[in-house]
């Protein structure tokens, strides 16, 4: 019964799309030509999979045109992938978006610059303390595990979706806390993101934010409630601080740490010993990522960071391609069920720019 309903829905959607596209396109293509179009068939699947809704025929046609153009970009990206490279690019939730629209979601504030904004409120700012491993310590990767994946243990919460809010740093900061708390106390909570959007001095959805901003705010708030207590709405709303009791704040942090320009060995040491940590990358080339290991030398990925992600491990393929494994916040339908991999050893997409974590 469900299959029949789905088939009816798809046929209705197809008819609607054909009619709208014909109207807006000025009948440049016949209905038969449109129906046989491979791009249109892919677009219909895309609309259904990602529950896309367009308000006007003009918007529908514009998004379809953008979808077709982006397929050409995907083909060009895949053509650059050399033998031995495992990255694959294709249709994603962002396939109907322009580059500018996609980049607007990537609003991570580099912490060195963010410090200047935060010091405008002297009573708000709290300095980070030393990281758990000294940056001056000589690290031998020979003594570290060859691979580690914290998602195989119960210390990484389910993949989330920030949607259109530029809240990547809020998610990454709180997810480092979820994992650090689980490692120390044996309990994994899915913690609230929304309070950081509502109750801070700036609006992360519009202005973006940084790791230090979010850790400092959480220290001032005195703890973090569960996501079920303070649900995510992906937009800044009225602060509900007075409605959250102290008993609702199940998890708290005492301080935080930041390391600028960590080496690969340092990153491997910290993540293997202390669990997932927050990183910053340039995510411009992730718009059409589907699976595999991204090599910035292939994609031309910049080292200017604009997106916060969670480092959950590292490893090496059978072909001896070394990689980092990272958790994103664009939902489970994106990438490798919400995760992606970057090549290790090349500062791919600026991954060696910044590393951060909390103290429980």
From TrEMBL:
GO molecular-function annotation terms?
cysteine-type peptidase activity
Question: Quick one: a GO biological-process term for this protein?
Answer: proteolysis
Q: Which InterPro entries match?
A: Papain-like_cys_pep_sf (IPR038765), Pept_his_AS (IPR025660), Peptidase_C1A (IPR013128), Peptidase_C1A_C (IPR000668), Peptidase_C1A_papain-like (IPR039417), Prot_inhib_I29 (IPR013201)
Annotated signal peptide:
1-26
Instruction: Return the Gene3D superfamilies for the record.
Output: Cysteine proteinases
Which Pfam families does this UniProt record tie to the protein? Answer: Inhibitor_I29, Peptidase_C1
* Sequence ranges assigned to domain Cathepsin propeptide inhibitor in this UniProt record: 43-102
Q: Which residues form the Peptidase C1A papain C-terminal domain?
A: 144-359
Q: Which UniProt keywords apply?
A: Signal
Task: Determine if Signal is one of this entry's keywords.
Answer: yes
Record keywords: Translocase included? no
The Swiss-Prot or TrEMBL record describes its family as follows: Belongs to the peptidase C1 family.
Protein name, entry field: Cathepsin L
* UniProt organism field: Oopsacas minuta
């Amino acid at each position: 019964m469900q299959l029949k309903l789905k088939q009816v829905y798809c046929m209705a959607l197809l008819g609607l799309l054909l009619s709208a596209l014909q109207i807006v396109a000025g009948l440049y293509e016949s209905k038969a030509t449109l129906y046989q179009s491979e791009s249109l068939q892919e677009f219909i699947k895309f609309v259904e999979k990602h529950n896309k809704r367009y308000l006007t025929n003009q918007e529908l046609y514009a998004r379809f045109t953008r979808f077709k153009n982006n397929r050409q970009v995907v083909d060009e990206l895949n053509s650059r992938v050399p033998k031995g490279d495992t990255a694959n690019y294709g249709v994603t939730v962002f396939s109907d978006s322009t580059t500018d629209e996609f980049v607007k979601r990537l609003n991570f504030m580099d912490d060195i610059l963010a410090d200047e904004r935060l010091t405008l409120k002297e009573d708000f700012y709290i300095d980070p303390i030393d990281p758990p491993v000294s940056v001056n310590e000589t690290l031998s990767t020979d003594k570290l595990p060859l691979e580690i994946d914290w998602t195989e243990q119960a210390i990484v919460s389910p993949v989330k979706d920030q949607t259109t809010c530029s809240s990547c740093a809020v998610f990454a900061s709180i997810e480092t806390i979820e994992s650090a708390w689980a490692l120390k106390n044996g309990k994994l909570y899915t913690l609230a993101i929304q309070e950081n959007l509502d109750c801070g001095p700036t609006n992360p959805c519009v202005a973006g934010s940084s790791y230090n901003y979010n850790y400092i705010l959480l220290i001032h708030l005195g703890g973090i409630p569960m996501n079920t207590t303070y649900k995510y709405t992906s937009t800044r709303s009225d602060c509900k601080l007075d409605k959250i009791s102290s008993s609702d704040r199940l998890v708290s942090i005492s301080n935080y740490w930041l390391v600028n320009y960590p080496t690969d060995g340092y990153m491997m040491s910290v993540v293997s010993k202390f669990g997932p940590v927050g990183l910053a990358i340039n995510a411009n080339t992730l718009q059409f990522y589907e699976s595999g290991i991204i090599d910035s030398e292939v994609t031309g990925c910049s080292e200017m960071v604009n997106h916060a992600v969670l480092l959950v491990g590292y490893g090496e393929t059978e072909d001896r391609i070394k990689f980092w494994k990272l958790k994103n916040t664009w939902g489970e339908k994106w990438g490798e069920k919400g995760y992606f991999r970057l090549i290790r050893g090349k500062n791919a997409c600026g991954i060696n720019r910044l590393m951060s974590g909390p103290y429980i």
